[in-house]
Amino acid sequence: MVEISGEDIVESVRAALQYISYYHTPDYLSHLAAAYEREQSASAKAAIGQILESSRLAATGQRPMCQDTGMVTVFARLGQSCVIKSDKSLAELINEGTRLAYMDAGNPLRASMVDDPIYERKNTRDNTPAITHIDVGLGNTLEILVAAKGGGSENKARFANLNPSTSVADWVVETVETLGAGWCPPGVIGVGVGGTAEKAMQMAKKACMGEIDMSDLLARGPRDKIEELRIELYERINNLGIGAQGLGGLTTVVDVKVATYPTHAASKPVAIMPQCAANRHAKITLDGSGPAFLDPPNLSAWPVIDGSASSGQFRRVNVDTMTPEEMASWKTGETLLLSGRILTGRDAAHKRIADILARGESLPVDLKGRVIYYVGPVDPVGNEAVGPAGPTTSTRMDKFTDMMLDQGIVSMIGKAERGPKTVEDIARHKATYLIAVGGAAVLVSKAIRSSRLIAFEDLGMEAIREFEVEDMPVTVAVDAAGTSIHVTGPQMWKGKAVPVLA
Question: What is the DSSP code (8-state) at residue 196?
């Protein structure tokens, strides 16, 4: 009988969560680097390059690769020959490791969990509880697959109970086409087929954390029908033309994983789970000899990217002095380097502004002529002005956009597409919408020179702040005429992807 101490489990989970906050897996890096080399869409190539460049900065500085440091999901498998020495349950030990990881003074991670989920939605402040799934089987070890799932990709999970004769491949491709870019592609799509509704969803989530091996699969060819399905889905999804960040391009997914389980004769439960560009997960095994730690990857795994935002090849914009005429000259897909003062604000801040205006009261900040960035940054450490500060999904702000434009906002920065009505509102106000690259949070934070609290301090990371930025890289997503690259980009690149080996 193997004894595993509770303290070892806590320390192993803590260390693993810190590790995955700043290290991409080598398999993802190699496939993303290959996608960068073959990408022909200039906007998508620039986005992939920023993700890779930011990933290197995260690894070398040991700071979170994404400001959304995720909801902790754990798949634990306890060998029947193991005994856990603790007065706490395995789930409680995992929560303690999560708490310590997210409150680490040297690399604090953003707490995003709220309780209760319906009414108060009050932040738990330490990112607990984790979502833990425990299985018991043969063996004398404790295996823990730990992941940190961002809200943008988690929100794009989909499920359907298909007619048994319905094509799984067709449903998956048609569904992915409706997801938009809020899940931060290029990433991985996990597919779960069979079992029950909850079984299919769990299989899809666990599948997308498997080793990325699509390049090997394409090189050797499929060995069974599941591998044939993976290749079909990989090629058909990439042929949608969605591309990196939804800008239109050749690579939307670097791999597709499929897991199956027996199901009822009348059912065909199918779930898809997108895995974003952060792709944070790791597996640790405890055998009673002490905590389990992961070896740091070799930094040579990170490619050197030419043409970064510091190369001076993009248009520079001073947001403090820009004119409507200057903004009207911006073209969708163009990369800008912003300097000057921008405001921050996301869901909770927008809702509070709406409530203040509904009461007929004055706002605590003048929005006229300002640019607002949808961001909830990680807390700074050392001499940082702000921690990693990548964008959040903009569609959640759509219902507030016309109100903000009426108050004088001239441009917004976020990630992913805007709804058709919001695009119309932007055009009517002759405003613009810009995107920062989801997955490039460290790179963005390097452009932030100072941060000052403006309003709603009680909202924590959702408070309104004023950032002073210098050469912050963004891409024009909706121009002043109402042209959206999230519409024109995929239209341009649809059907142009080819198999990697072709």
Answer: -
Tokens 């072709």, located at residue: 502
pTM of the model: 0.92
pLDDT tens readout for residues 262-302: 999 999 999 999 999 999 999 999 999 999 999 998 888 88
Q: Is 336 helix (H, G, I), strand (E, B) or coil?
A: strand
**Distance separating alpha carbons of residues 143 and 135, to the nearest angstrom:** 10
Contact 196, 182 (CB under 8 A): no
Q: Which two tokens stand for residue 338?
A: 């912003």
CB distance 175 to 272 below 8 Å: yes
Q: Compute the average pLDDT of residues 100-105.
A: 97
Pairing state of beta strands 335-344 and 371-373? Answer: parallel
CB atoms within 10 A of CB 145: 18
Q: Could you tell me which residues come within 8 angstroms of residue 322 by beta carbon, excluding any fewer than 6 positions away? A: none
DSSP string over 373-387: E-B-PPPP-TT-SSS
**CA–CA gap between residue 299 and residue 316 (Å, rounded):** 31
C-alpha 108/C-alpha 4 separation (Å) is 28
Q: Is the preceding omega at residue 303 within 30 degrees of 0, hence cis?
A: no
Q: Is the peptide bond before 320 cis (omega within 30 degrees of 0)?
A: no
- Enumerate domains of the chain plus CATH numbers: 151-277 (no CATH), 309-489 (3.20.130.10)
Q: Give the relative orientation of helices 485-493 and 42-61 as an angle to the nearest 10 degrees.
A: 110
122 backbone dihedrals φ, ψ, rounded to 5°:
-90, 130
Position of tokens 């754990």? 74
**Do 458 and 123 meet the contact criterion of CB atoms below 8 Å apart?**
no
Query: Taking a C-beta distance cutoff of 8 angstroms, is the pair 388, 436 a contact?
Result: no
Structure tokens, 185: 């592609």
